[in-house]
Write a structure and sequence with these properties.
The protein is an alpha/beta fold. Helix content is 26%, strand content 25%. The chain is built from 9 helices and 15 strands. The strands form 3 sheets. Strands 3, 4, 5, 6, 7, 14 and 15 form a 7-stranded mixed β-sheet that branches. It has a 6-stranded parallel β-sheet with strand order 10-9-8-11-12-13, with helices on both faces. Helix 2 crosses helix 3 and helix 2 crosses helix 8. The longest helix has 21 residues.
């Protein structure tokens, strides 16, 4: 593990399509069988062809996401998510080639964004409508920790839950990648933020802007919310846990409250929904996942975040939270770090220059 450093721009010939200046092969992480982290291996594979709407990006950093762990274990089978059948959803780097229908970007631009597979490699192709410019002055390596978590958090908080200034929100798993992004966005929007995490992560979560920290190991979040709100409850709950928290989440909501389910870390089965509470408090429940959405929906999600929050990112009002970095070839170690539950914020992979 190491501390991220500023990546230097890569000098490439100014091309608008794949050419002789683009390498034919690259290092990537693949797996032949589903299983534990040990199945991940580095291998030379062909560089992807540039399609009409694509940017080809030399990656400076690659975000590790829980969906990658599920992919490795076989949860999606050998699925193809639109850009590559290899692993990885999130990149930041420098454009080295692009298709003829790309608009708004040029070779040499620093970009970050979400890909439909293929991030765990030295180069990735990304539909330009899923890419965002990296703000001037922002570390290019750190930018690899932005897209997936902040876009997901924005979608849950604002597009679905319609959170606004003066409201209150309960955010679970607040030390994780999406959780820490959600805390920052909610705080920046003027909401009162309740956040759950392990007690050893209190300082990091409060540093992201949480107003009330709840140690999920020793405190009942429903009781804390009830006491702190004089029994009213919170306006919004952002949940990553699933079934074990469902009843308490619903009972923690105020009249007209909104619950958004973003993950199922605790499982999907065995919970009962208190329908009387849903009915008489006029509650709304949403589910959201990005990976399986149609391209046009994912593009709209990216653009909604970019339009509202890129200036705040440039100004440092919100920032990526980085736990650790690993060489691309050490992807197995990065997965073990995520599975340990000890990480705070994002884990990044860094391709080695060659």
């Amino acid at each position: 593990m190491s501390t991220p450093t500023t990546a230097l721009p890569v000098t490439e010939q100014p091309v608008t399509e794949q050419s002789a200046t683009t390498p034919r092969t690259m290092q990537a992480i693949v797996f032949d069988d589903f299983g534990g982290p040990e199945v991940l291996v580095a291998r030379e594979i062909p560089v992807p062809e540039v399609r009409p709407h694509d940017l080809l990006v030399r990656n400076a950093s690659i975000g590790v996401n829980r969906a990658d762990l599920l992919h490795r274990k076989g949860a999606y089978g050998r699925a193809y998510f639109g850009d590559a059948d290899t692993m990885g959803l999130e990149i930041a780097g420098t454009v080295v080639a692009m298709g003829p229908e790309v608009q708004g970007f040029a070779v040499g631009d620093r970009v970050m964004g979400i890909v439909g597979g293929g991030a765990y490699a030295e180069l990735s192709r990304i539909d330009h409508r899923m890419a965002m410019p990296v703000p001037a002055g922002m570390d290019l390596v750190a930018a690899g920790a932005v897209a997936e978590v902040f876009v997901t958090a924005h979608e849950a908080l604002f597009h679905l839950a319609r959170l606004h200034a003066g409201e209150s929100v309960l955010i679970h798993a607040a030390a994780g990648g999406v959780g820490s992004a959600a805390v920052q966005l909610a705080h920046a929007a003027g909401a009162r933020v309740f956040a759950t995490a392990g007690g050893d992560k209190r300082g990091a979560v409060l540093g992201c802007g949480a107003d009330v920290f709840i140690d999920y190991r020793s405190e009942d979040f429903q009781a804390v919310v009830a006491q702190a709100t004089q029994g009213r409850g919170v306006d919004v709950v952002i949940d990553f846990i699933g079934a074990p928290y469902l009843q308490r989440n619903v009972r923690s909501l105020a009249d007209g409250g909104r619950l958004v389910s973003v993950g199922l870390l605790g499982g999907a089965q065995g919970a009962e929904l208190p329908m009387d509470v849903v009915l008489y408090r006029h509650l709304q429940i949403f589910g959201t996942v990005m990976k399986s959405r149609p391209p046009e929906v994912k593009q709209a999600m990216v653009q909604r975040f970019a339009q509202q929050w890129l200036p705040a990112l440039a100004a440092g009002v919100i920032r990526p939270v980085i736990d650790s970095t690993f060489a691309l070839a050490d992807a197995a170690q990065a997965h073990r770090r995520m599975e340990s539950g000890a990480s705070i914020g994002k884990i990044l992979l860094l391709p080695e220059a060659r």
